[in-house]
Description:
The chain has three helices and seven strands. By secondary structure, the protein is α+β, with helices and mostly antiparallel strands.
Amino acid sequence: MGIQNGVIGFGVMISSLVLASGDKQVQPLEVKGPLAIKIRGNVLVPYSADSKEEVAKLLGPQQAESVEKQISFETHRVLLFQWAGSGQDVLVSTIHDEVVTFQYTRGRTRDLRQHFQAFAVDKQIVWKVTESDKTGK
């Protein structure tokens, strides 16, 4: 158990260092939802935060500390996606020609679930959100 935790911790530390060095243009972040402020989310309109203070307003001070350990706010911004939908809803990111596209695909089940995803995106890159005309699984 101790070795497993050490290996996992090492992996998280290395991935955080790679992101903080600016090598990744888009990186999923490990944060715990829900947002600190109670606003209905829309997957097509994410919350954007360019500083630790802005993240703290959305997620609370403890999560802002966690995010700050994962990214450099000098080079990256945080995009927070929150929405309610099918348990099979999917949000994926792709990069093509220096544009990050977050594509949302609705699931087919009627089990209403809260979704929360956060990404670190290089401030120099353009991003957009699209909705797939297909449904998931």
